[in-house]
Amino acid sequence: MAKSSADDEELRRACEAAIEGTKQKIVLSIRVAKSRGIWGKSGKLGRNHMAKPRVLALSIKTKGPRTKAFLRVLKYSTGGVLEAAKLYKLKHLSKVEVITNDPSGCTFTLGFDNLRSQSVAPPQWTMRNIDDRNRLLLCILNMCKDILGRLPKVVGIDVVEMALWAKENTPAVTTTQRTLQDEPVETAVTGSDMKVSVEKELVAQDEEEDMEALLGTYVMGIGEAEAFSERLKRELLALEAANVHAILESEPLIDEVLQGLEVATNCADDMDEWLSIFNVKLRHMREDIESIETRNNKLEMQSVNNKTLIEELDKLLERLQVPSEHAASLTGGSFDEAHMLQNVEACEWLTGALRGLEVPNLDPVYANMRAVKEKRAELEKLKATFVKRASEFLRNYFASLVDFMISDKSYFSQRGQLKRPDHADLRYKCRTYARLLQHLKSLDKNCLGPLRKAYCSSLNLLLRREAREFANELRAGTKASRNPTGWLEGSTGSSQSGNSADTSAVSEAYAKMLTIFIPLLVDESSFFAHFMCFEVPALVPPGGGANGNKSGSNNDNGSDDDLGIMDIDDNDSKAVKNSVDLVALNESLRDLLDGIQEDFYAVVDWAYKIDPLRCISMHGITERYLSGQKADAAGFVRLLLGDLESRISLQFNHFVDEACHQIERNERNVRQTGVIPYIPR
Fold it and tell me: Least crowded by CB within 10 Å, which of 3, 95, 163, 520?
């Protein structure tokens, strides 16, 4: 085992040098580590509570017959020299506590009752091992006992363990003995006295001598076994004779005892009879109490049930109660834009109230109650009233919006000025009522049909007026002369370039018509589908396939994308419902855009009359738009472009047939040469 610092003579001399001039002598010096714990969290050290090396020295000072004991704390200076840091008087030591949070058991604190601030945690001293700790603490305790005549409170240490350690390690304190040899009072802390003070002899020396003297005064006489046996027999016979004599003398007493027993027996019999009577009465009383408890339990259960029932009924009444502000909005509120928030909140409340009175959300026991049925009928009446009022308002609102735009000529093309149709303001005003339409659909799906027809009818008038005015002004503003049909002039090698007029403006006018109106019609179709709450799959942006697994070429001959709606997955649970909405959307789009094709036909016929050969360029323009709209959001637009393509093809075929007929009629040699020489013309 490593040598203890308590036996370090050099350390002792350094300590004596540090306290030189104080007339104190070192009894024990030992190296420790100082740390400062936190109250309630002993053993947990923070950044500012790191362990610091220190030396604890026990010293005494003799002044006449009085001896004082001190505990000194010495620290190392910058040069490594020990210097005195703190001085504690052992007479103020009140508690020695070993820190339980330290599993090694080498950390302890010393509590002094004269410290100014008791709120600051005392420093913690950590020894190198248990032997050093026991050695220091044992020396402190012995000095307190011998010099001060009392012991401080010891916490967290086993006294028996200390005694065993002192017994096994008595030679370890020889250093202390050597130090104290010259002091008459200091000999009280030698090794043998340490052992006696801790082990606490059971019997003092004076008491032991008194007991030996007492035992010596009584002669047992057990030196010979036979004599001792005779003595025991004589004493036994004497005891038996004394017992018989005592029994004979106590006969009157026995008679009195027997009489008392008889009286007691009679009293016991009377008591038994009384107890039986009381038992019967108690049994009847117990039965009455049980009956009362049973009735009381039933009453308590009934009270609890009634309380719970009242709470449930109160909750049900809260659900059945119609708030006054919502009732006012549903029955007679305004549908102006400023009041739309109140209307939407009223719709949300009405939808939630109706859903809350349905069986999945309402206990089936309540569903058949008369109050619930009456409240459901009242809510249905409120719903019907609100749906009727909202539908009538929206029909009139759509019509008034369109009438206002039609009456204002600045929305349309005028003489000398082509006006691009702008529906941004119209859509903004309609979006104000988009949430109202969604709530109307959740309240009554059947009300959307008339609203859709009213919207389509009103907007159809606006679109047809815009297309008609635009087409008229487009034709009036296009400068192009008619191209003479000089197909019979010249012969096979002749050239027609000198007689041809430039009619490219006609094709440009047709392209402008498509450029302006085709995106407008597509946007209107998409807005209508969303605004009128059609439950259809997501609309695909232009340029993408209708389905991620299909390309545009696969849809050339199919009609799946005629509505411009994404294909429905066969595994979708809403496929049937979506297909129904697709049919309804197709019919509504036809009502929305029907009739606008006449203005496109008029432009095609006008271009044909100016130059029939412009059918070729118009066919190419139409084909380009048609291929670009395969995955767009409006099916009727595809139908319109297809009809335009068919009409252009029909016009061009008519022109070709007419030209061939004229050639065959006027050229005699056409049967020999054919019509090939006329094609370049």
Answer: 3
Helices (H) and strands (E) in the chain, counts: 21, 8
Query: Residue 323 has which token pair?
Result: 């708030």
The encoded tokens of residue 361 equal 């959300």
The answer to whether residues 505 and 680 touch, using CB atoms and an 8 Å cutoff, is: no
Joined together, the tokens standing for residue 544 give: 């993408």
Residue 188: its pLDDT value, please? Answer: 36
- Phi, psi at residue 72, to the nearest 5°? -105, 145
Tokens, residue 267 = 């009293």
Q: Which residue has the tokens 């009732």?
A: 327
The residue among 159, 121, 138 whose CA lies nearest residue 6 is 138
Helix (H/G/I), strand (E/B), else coil: 417: strand
Q: How many other β-carbons are positioned within 10 Å of the β-carbon of residue 599?
A: 22
Nearest CA-CA partner of 108 in 69, 70, 63, 162: 162
Count CA atoms within 13 Å of residue 205 on its CB side: 1
> How much is the pTM?
0.48
Per-position b or e across 393-425, b if 16+ CB within 10 A of its CB: ebbebbeebbeebeeeeebbbeeeeebebebee
User: What's the pLDDT at 629?
Assistant: 66
The token pair that represents 487 in the structure block: 């197909």
Extract the residue ranges of the chain whose pLDDT is less than 50. 1, 39-47, 172-201, 218, 486-499, 538-573, 631-632, 672
Of 480, 543, 520, 481, nearest to 600 by C-alpha is: 520
What distance in Å separates the CA atoms of residue 177 and residue 167, rounded to the nearest whole number?
A: 16
Q: How far is CA 182 from CA 90, 187, 194, 490, 675, in A?
A: 22, 8, 18, 158, 153
For residue 313, give Cα distances in angstroms to 155, 359, 655.
Answer: 65, 17, 85
Say how far apart CA 274 and CA 251 lie, in whole Å.
34
What angle in degrees, to the nearest 10, is found between the helix axes of 251-320 and 225-249?
A: 80
Tokens at 3, concatenated: 């040598």
CA atoms within 13 A on the CB side of 508: 8
Q: Is the CB of residue 515 less than 8 Å from the CB of residue 629?
A: no
CA 473/CA 449 separation, integer angstroms: 36
**Nearest of 562, 536, 533, 555 to residue 637 by alpha carbon:** 562
With vertex at residue 96, the alpha carbon angle to CA 91 and CA 101, rounded to the nearest 5 degrees, is 160
Is-contact 343 436, C-beta < 8 A? yes
Beta carbons of 344 and 435 less than 8 angstroms apart: yes
Give the single-character DSSP code of 85.
Answer: E
What pLDDT, on a 0 to 100 scale, did the predictor assign at position 554? Answer: 37
Phi, psi of 430 (to 5 degrees): -70, -35
How would you classify the pairing of strands 93-98 and 153-155? parallel
